[in-house]
Amino acid sequence: MTDSIVDVAGLAVGHFSDTRRPTGCTVVLTPQGAVCGVDVRGAAPGTRETELLSPLNAVEQVHAVLLAGGSAFGLDAAGGVMRWLEERGVGVAVGPVRVPIVPAAILFDLWIGDARIRPDASAGYAACAAASREPPAQGNVGAGAGASVGKLYGMARAMKGGIGSASVRAAGITVGALVAVNALGDVIDPSSGRPVAGARNADGTALLGTMQAILAGELPAPFQPGAATTIGVVATDARLTKAQANKLAQMAHDGLARSINPVHTMGDGDTLFALATGAAGRSADLTLIGALAAEATARAVLNAVRAAGRLATPGLPELPCASDFA
């Protein structure tokens, strides 16, 4: 076990990180096809192909899931993922062509650097070309390159977010998670209830504790909707139906609720996809798989901010990281 989503057989992960400013995208490839569900909890989502994942609709499997920075512009990167898969003959046979099915979600990272630079089709293609079964890099890479957390009191008091992964195994079933953490709220360690990364006090020298500050009467100013978002993928090697995959995505959000506070806000577009590769060759109790998914998701969130590095690029806002306050 590598404690990452690639412990789930049938998956490969690739990052693209733009060198011109902190942004990028991450792809989870399942070219042999996987059943997929989704659950959107944030009020400001940016997504693609989510309606197709309803159990009421026809297509049963997807071939990749894309996570990207760049706000709604970043959805363009899915076109590059489609092109990479099509070149390899992967997709649903429709008449004379194969159409790859690539759901996607984006997060807002346009605060940092030149906002005209964002993931595009070439970025999605590059992420596919980099994909492997090796444990994916964590922190300031891929969709987490420009992520930040603790923004309820403004970017001047925020910290660096990132992307993280984790996996758990029980009863012969593996469940993994990959999460790009760009939350409006703080990241909380569920074992202690204390913030690991998030809003800082007025002079920036210590973690504030957003909910404690609000309860004490230190209220934040109104925040621009749609300027945050945590997005991710949970995956299992169990066999699931589309309805079960959607339920799995729903249960995985409990992991976000344990590790981010506040979460699912009007400024976040929090979205989780669930993949079932079936590589274990058997079904399993969905209650068990869902509990494992929530645990893996919470661990991935913590890994994301603990792996993140300080952002201190000349001319860009400085964002300290969790290790600065450990």
Brief descriptors of the model:
326 residues, alpha+beta, globular, 9-stranded mixed β-sheet, L-amino peptidase D-ALA esterase/amidase
Could you walk me through the main structural features you see in this protein, from its secondary elements to its overall organization?
The protein is of the alpha+beta class and 326 residues long. The chain has a single domain, classed as L-amino peptidase D-ALA esterase/amidase (4-Layer Sandwich), CATH 3.60.70. The chain has helices at residues 77-87, 121-129, 210-215, 242-259, 286-307, and strands at residues 12-17, 24-40, 47-48, 61-68, 92-94, 97-99, 104-106, 148-149, 159-160, 162-170, 173-181, 186-189, 194-197, 231-236, 260-261, 271-276. Strands 1, 2, 3, 4, 7, 10, 11, 14 and 16 form a nine-stranded mixed sheet that branches. A three-stranded antiparallel sheet has the order 13-12-15. A hairpin with a 4-residue loop joins β12 and β13. The radius of gyration is 18 Å and the shape is globular. The model has no long low-confidence stretch (mean pLDDT 96).
Which sequence of SSEs, written as H and E, runs from N to C?
EEEEHEEEHEEEEEEHEHEEH
CATH architecture: 4-Layer Sandwich
* CATH fold category name: L-amino peptidase D-ALA esterase/amidase
CATH class: Alpha Beta
What's the total number of strands? Answer: 16
Count the helices. How many?
5
Report strand %: 25-35%
Give average pLDDT, whole number: 96
Q: Termini, distance in Å?
A: 27 Å
Structural class: alpha+beta
Question: Into how many domains do the coordinates divide?
Answer: 1
